[in-house]
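Design a sequence for this backbone.
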């Protein structure tokens, strides 16, 4: 699948997730190598009002979502893939007043599990805020049928 349809599919997936709507998370880039989402800086996600530093929970949400939605980059058809395990190693706090980007790739796909890894960063991916690894359970095409599949696939079946 080319970059534009993957990006549109990722954005449709995000639009079905209410918490992502509230946080303003959007699809930034998507191709066969992985997915990048953007979490805009806002006062609603500040963990320390004195410093303006983003709460770790907002970054965790960004990275869980990025890893989970990155599955669309490797699966030929939409499948619901809930999180089995997620590990985040925080390297340093995000700088105040700057958006955070999350990148994730699927590095192994089995019939039952998808393995992902990625980073959260601001200006430079070579200076990550956090590293993440996650595993996601494949529920299969039959269990993924219904409303969210139609939303993500753009109204198709």
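Sequence:
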């Amino acid at each position: 699948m080319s970059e534009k349809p993957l990006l549109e599919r990722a954005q449709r997936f995000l639009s079905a997730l209410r918490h992502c709507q509230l946080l303003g998370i959007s699809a930034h880039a998507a191709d066969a190598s992985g997915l990048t989402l953007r979490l805009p800086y806002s006062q609603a996600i500040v963990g320390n009002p004195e410093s303006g530093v983003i709460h770790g929970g907002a970054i965790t949400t960004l990275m869980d979502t990025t890893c989970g939605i990155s599955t669309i980059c490797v699966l030929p058809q939409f499948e619901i893939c809930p999180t089995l395990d997620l590990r985040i190693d925080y390297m340093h706090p995000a700088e105040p007043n700057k958006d955070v980007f999350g990148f994730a790739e699927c590095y192994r796909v089995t019939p039952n599990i998808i393995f992902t890894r990625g980073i959260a960063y601001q200006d430079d991916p070579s200076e990550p805020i956090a590293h993440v690894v996650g595993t996601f359970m494949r529920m299969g095409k039959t269990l993924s049928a219904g409303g969210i599949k139609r939303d993500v696939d753009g109204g198709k079946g």
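The chain has a mean pLDDT of 90.
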